[in-house]
Design a protein that fits this description.
Layout: H1 4-21, H2 26-34, H3 40-46, H4 52-64, E1 68-73, E2 79-84, H5 92-110
Antiparallel strand pairs: 1-2
């Protein structure tokens, strides 16, 4: 039977993960950038109901956590692009598991699960 130490050894890293990818937007933003949406407006348009203010904050958080890179290209107008960094790929299995669970859960709730 698991004990208190086993519980803490699971809770602490889960809490750390949730602090990085918290909220409903960060993983969606990572997916959007990962499939090729590089500019601010492209990312925003690809995710329904995502406000400009929230996107700006979440992009900053993702950059601070080493998951994306913001590149400013001089010129007129100035071009800002976002790309995922290799470290973001470590979340691939997490994103895939969440997607699979979401499909299963939707089927369960809608009554289409077997």
């Amino acid at each position: 039977m698991p004990n208190y130490t086993d519980c803490l050894s699971a809770l602490i890293p889960i809490r750390d993960t949730l602090e990085v990818v918290n909220g409903k937007w960060k993983l969606l933003i990572l997916v959007s950038i990962g499939v090729g949406n590089r500019r601010f407006r492209e990312i925003q348009r690809s995710i329904p109901d995502l406000s400009t203010k929230v996107l700006a904050k979440e992009l900053k958080d993702l950059e601070e956590n080493g998951l994306i890179k913001r590149t400013v290209e001089d010129g007129y107008p100035v071009t800002i692009t976002y790309t995922t960094l290799p470290y973001a790929e470590t979340l691939g299995s997490v994103i895939e598991a969440l997607k699979n669970w979401g499909v299963q859960h939707r089927e369960h709730i809608m009554g289409t699960a077997s």
